[in-house]
Amino acid sequence: MLKPVFILLLGVMLATPMAANALNIKDYHKEVMTGADGKVDCAACHGDAKRKTVPDAASCSSCHGSPEEVAKLTERPADAGHSVEPNPHNSLHYGTDLPCTYCHQEHKESKVYCNQCHEFTYPQMKR
Questions:
Q1: How far apart are CA 68 and CA 58, in angstroms?
Q2: Under a CB-based contact definition with an 8 Å cutoff, are residues 115 and 121 in contact?
Q3: Residue 29 is assigned to a structural domain of this protein
Q4: What is the pLDDT along the chain (127 residues), one digit of tens a residue?
Q5: Which of these, 24, 31, 71, 122, could form a disulfide with 89 (CB 3.0-4.6 Å)?
Q6: What is the dihedral of CA 104, 52, 65, 35, to 10 degrees?
Q7: Domain tally, the chain
Q8: Which residues make beta-bridge pairs with 99?
């Protein structure tokens, strides 16, 4: 049986904002998501929802731009030829409607969603 002091300590730890190094946060987001006090602002992505909920696309768009804007940033030149992999942000199957979190993960390794059926490498993908 757990002692009351341990339960109280556990409750305080869970209710206290986490330090950036305690969470698995990608380096390029740490600067944006960590306050001057060293605490991570989970609400920046998760809003007022529980921490374990998946952020909605509006959270990503607020910093990175709309799905259409992101797709323009990753367009391939028209003369690149057929051997160039398709634009990952403008899928032949989903257009720009695929949620960002299908590929991009903050707290674990990102994966190319399309690779469930295809074999794309996207060497510039931040992992």
A1: 13
A2: no
A3: yes
A4: 555 555 554 454 444 444 444 578 888 888 888 888 988 888 888 888 776 788 988 999 999 999 999 999 988 877 766 666 789 999 999 999 999 999 999 888 899 999 999 998 887 776 5
A5: 71
A6: -110
A7: 1
A8: none
Give the separation between CA 48 and CA 15, rounded to whole angstroms: 14
**Predicted model pTM:** 0.71
User: At a CB cut-off of 8 Å and minimum separation 6, what does 97 contact?
Assistant: 67
Token pair of 43 as six digits:
């609400």
97 located within any domain: yes
Q: Which residue type occupies 51?
A: R
Q: Does any domain span residue 45? A: yes
Q: Is residue 1 part of a domain?
A: no
Contact indicator for 114, 98 with CB cutoff of 8 Å: no
In this structure, what CATH number is given to the domain that contains residue 58? 1.10.1130
How far apart (Å, rounded) are the C-alpha atoms in residues 22 and 5? 23
Largest CA-CA distance found in the chain, in angstroms, rounded: 68
